[in-house]
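Chapter summary example.
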Amino acid sequence: MFDRLAIVRLSPRSSAAPTVFAVYCDEKSLSKSDRNAARDAALANPSFRGELGETAVASDGTVILGLGERKAFTAKEARIAGARLVRGLERMKASKVRLACASAFATRDQREFAQALGEGMGVANWRVDMFDGKSTTRSARAGTLSIDALVDAKDTTFSEGFARGIDIAHSVNHARRIAATPPNIGTPNWFALEAKKLARATGMTCQVITFAQAKKLGMGGMVAVGQGSAEKSLIAILEYKPTRVSAKARGKTLALVGKTLTYDTGGYSLKVNNGMKGMKYDKCGGAAVFGAMHAIATAKLPLHVVALFPAAENMVSSNAYRPDDIITMYNGTTVEVTNTDAEGRLVLADAISYGCEKYKPTTMVELSTLTGGVVTALGTWSAGYFCDDANLRERIESSAERTSERVWRLPLWKEHKDHMKSQHADIINSNPSRLAHPIQGAAFLDFFVDKSVPFAHIDIAGVANSESASDLCVAGPTGFGVRMLVDLAEGMC
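The structure predicted for these 493 residues follows.
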C-alpha cells in the first residue's frame, strides 16, 4: 500500500522509473516501436500468460501488464487490471512508473478505459489503517508512487482520463473514510464538521439544520429518531454553485440525499444476536453522497448540485421514541411508529420533503442502507432501486453500467403504498408483515416526494460494505455509489 499516488511528469532520463506496457493474452505482442529483446523474452516466457492483472518484469526493468482476452476486456476489467497493477508495483517496491498502456486501448474509448485504470489503482490503494496503534502488525505504507501517464505529448487523451480516474478514486476513498469512522468518533456533529471542512476546501457552502431548528420546522422524523441520544440529530446541507453553468444544465438542479445514521442500535426495537455489529456503516449512503460532492466540486462540473445529509444516532434512553408513537413529519403527514428500527426512512422523509420545497430540484436521487430485505433479494452483487421516471431510470442504468456499480429496478405499485396505510395515522413506518420487505421503505418515502420531481431511491444495503476483500476493495466500506452519482451528474451537464 502506498501513501498516495501522485500524477507527475518524469524526466526522460529518470532510469529509476520502469515503463508499464499492456498486452492481451490472445495477442501477446507489443508494437514495433515498443519491442526489444528483453521485452520479447518476457512475453515469450511460458510463465507469463497475459491474464487480467498479471504482471511480468523484463530484464530491462520493463513491466508487462496482462489484460486478459481482448473481446472480454471492458472498463470493469480495466479497474481490476489497475487494482492488480498497483499491488504488483508495491511488491516490486517501485516509487516511480511510466504508463505506456495507451496503445493497448487504441481501438477503444481511451479516456474511459484510462479513467477506469486510474480508478482501479486508486481505489485498491486504500485500507482502514487510520486507527492503527502502537501494537499494529500491519506493514507500513510504501511512500508515494509517482506516475507519469503522458507518453505522447501530442495526444493527452489517455493521461487526462487516467488523472480523472485517480481523482475519482480519491473521492471514493473519502467516502470510505467517512463510512469507516467508528461511532465514538463519527457522531452527527462530527459529520457536520466534516461537511464544513469539505465546503471550505472546495468552495461549496454548508448549512446545518440543528436539532432545535428541526423541531421548530416540524421535522418529526428527525426529532423522533435523534431524541434518545445525547448526540442530537441534524441535517447538513452542501451546495455547489458553479461560476459557469453549461447550456445543457441551465435551469437544472440535481439534489442528492444520503442517509447518515452514524449509529443504529434499533432503538426500543433493539437489534439482537450481535445485530449491531457494523452499524457504523448505516451512514454509507451519506458517505457516498459526500464523496460524490467532493468529486463534483473538485472537477468544477458546470451544474448546480445540492446534497442533504440527515444525520442521527438511533439510541435507547428514557427520551427515545417508541413503537406506538405518532409523529408529524415536515410535510404534514402523520406516521404511526411500529418499529423504531425502521428509522432511516423517517429522517430521509424529512430531508426529502424539505429538499423538494427549499431547492426545487429538477432531479433527486437518494442513497441509503435502508433494508435487509434488499440484501435477501439481490445479495451483495447489486443495489436495488426504485424510480417511476423513465428518463431518470435510463440515466441511472447507463451510469451504473459505465461505472460497474450494478443496480436492479424493483417495482413500486399502488398496492405497496396501500400496504403502508395506518389505522391510527396516515401511514406506518413499517408493516409488521414481511411481505415486500425491501419495497416497504421505498413505498414509505414516496409519500414525501414532490410528484413533479423525478426521483430515485437506491438501496445500497447489500453493496455498501464487504466482509471480505475483492480485487478492488479491502474488507470494509466500498464507497459504492460515488462513481455512479458523479457519472450521472456529468451526464446532466
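To summarize the output: The chain has two domains: 4-131+142-149, 170-491.
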